Amino acid sequence: MSFAWLTRFPALVWILIIGVFCSRGTFLMVWPFLAILLYQKFNLNEWQIGLILSSSAVIAIFVGFYSGTLSDRFGRKSMLMTAGVLSVTAFTALAQAEALSTYVLCIMLCAVSKEIWDPAAKALISDSIEQMELREFALQVRYFAINVGAALGPLAGVWLGLTAQQSTFYATALVFVLLTAAVFIGFSRQPPTNQRIKKTSFSFLQTFKLMAQDQVLLLLVLANILVLYIYAHMDTSLVQYLTQAGVPQLVELVSAVILTNALTIISFQFVLLKLLGKYSLNQRVVFGMFLLAIGQLMMAFNPVNLFWGWIAAVFLMSLGEAILFPTMNIQVDRLAPANMKGAYFGAASLFSIGFAIAPYFGGVILSAASGPVLFTSNALLCGVVLILYYLIRFAKRPSAVLMNQNL
User: Fold this and answer.
1) Strand partners, 405
2) Phi then psi dihedrals of residue 397, to 5 deg
3) CA–CA separation, 228 and 249 (whole Å)
4) pLDDT at residue 355 in the model
5) 347 phi and psi angles, rounded to 5 deg
6) Does this chain's domain 1-191 share its CATH topology with 200-407?
7) What is the largest CA-CA distance in the chain?
8) What averages of pLDDT result for each successive group of 10 residues across the chain (407 residues)?
9) Where are the domains of the chain?
10) CA–CA separation, 406 vs 123, rounded Å?
């Protein structure tokens, strides 16, 4: 694997990679401050704000599942254009919104448009690159671009003085205008010519039944829901725990945690890819889960005032993320039949259920028990994930899926 492979990406793939970097960066200039805007404008409490954001995320997850199937039937272009128009509309309306109902609707549309876009975009990358190693490298580069955008976006917002300003949503809307136009032009000038890709004739119900019989997919979905659930506590429950414990220099510590996470992924993703390249996907998952489990145990037993202990734990978890998260997309790509890529990447949207439920269960465990109990239970769940991956070896797949699979 070499960075010279970057020159072999088709134009549409580059449009999607650069687009996700720009869109994620401008999105995160203001989205983290949305809770502040809702509080300032409507005096909502934490529970009400959380309900709005979480319910939008859950609805979007299931829309993403369905939209992936639609991209197999009606083409990637149709779904990407739909998602682009929805994003432009939602972010423009957010920049002008005054009523709470408008905010709620726009927040839901933003979440839904992202979940429509992502399965179609991943499936298009898979469609456009026939060589498996190059295709998987493109998915790695896409994940890297997401993280760079996520790291630089908030910093750029601070430097430009755009944070916590409602008008910043115009910038995100403009990015999606340009991105949608670029995708449209990319399709017209360089449409995918790979003849092995055919639109599926399956209805949603037929597709759902086939996927429900794919035991490998079902186990993978369950395992990765748990992975994201475990990981999500670093963003939510950890901050709550540190706040309750009265940790000194809390703001500095939380900022250092966020920076450590971003810099670790950006710095080590391709180093780890090179080091682990000779190992199977399952072996990479075992190593990533080991790092995640050690990070959780360090959090469980780290003295609350030991600043660098938290940073070390986050560093190990971030190394695990750099291995696990790109591997998830590669696993789905390898599993998916050529005519059901969108449906399988849509099913991968269900992984995010772990992110959606983590804040709630984390809060419950922190209230009923303690931080060490929460993080120790997460470490034990890492073992459950490994058991699920072991069971995948014996899982069965429908003949209709195997017949169309293109590895």
Assistant:
1) 337
2) -130, 145
3) 28
4) 85
5) -60, -30
6) yes
7) 61
8) 77 91 77 70 74 81 86 89 93 88 89 90 90 91 89 69 67 90 87 52 74 91 95 84 82 83 91 91 94 96 92 95 93 88 89 86 86 95 96 85 57
9) 1-191, 200-407
10) 13
Enter the pTM of the model. 0.85
Token code pair at residue 286: 């075992």
Tokens of 392: 């995948």
Within 10 angstroms of residue 402's Cβ, the number of other Cβ atoms is 11
Token code pair at residue 16: 């999607």
β-bridge mates for residue 337, sequence order: 405
CATH placement of domain 200-407: 1.20.1250.20
Measured CA to CA in angstroms, residue 59 lies from 66, 88, 244, 337, 353 at distances of 11, 19, 31, 26, 10
Q: For residue 396, what are the contacts with CB-CB under 8 A and spacing of at least 6?
A: 215, 216
Q: How many residues does the chain have?
A: 407
Q: What is the pLDDT of residue 160?
A: 59
> What CATH superfamily is the domain 1-191?
MFS general substrate transporter like domains (1.20.1250.20)
As a three-state string, the secondary structure of the chain is CCHHHHHHCCHHHHHHHHHHHHHHHHHHHHHHHHHHHHHHHHCCCHHHHHHHHHHHHHHHHHHHHHHHHHHHHHCHHHHHHHHHHHHHHHHHHHHHCCCHHHHHHHHHHHHHHHHHHHHHHHHHHHHHCCCHHHHHHHHHHHHHHHHHHHHHHHHHHHHCCCCCCHHHHHHHHHHHHHHHHHHHHHHHHCCCCCCCCCCCCCCHHHHHHHHHHCHHHHHHHHHHHHHHHHHHCCCCHHHHHHHHCCCCCHHHHHHHHHHHHHHHHHHHHHHHHHHCCCCCHHHHHHHHHHHHHHHHHHHHHCCCCCHHHHHHHHHHHHHHHHHHHHHHHHHHHHHCEHHHHHHHHHHHHHHHHHHHHHHHHHHHHHHHCCHHHHHHHHHHHHHHHHHHHHHHCCCCCCHHHHHHECC
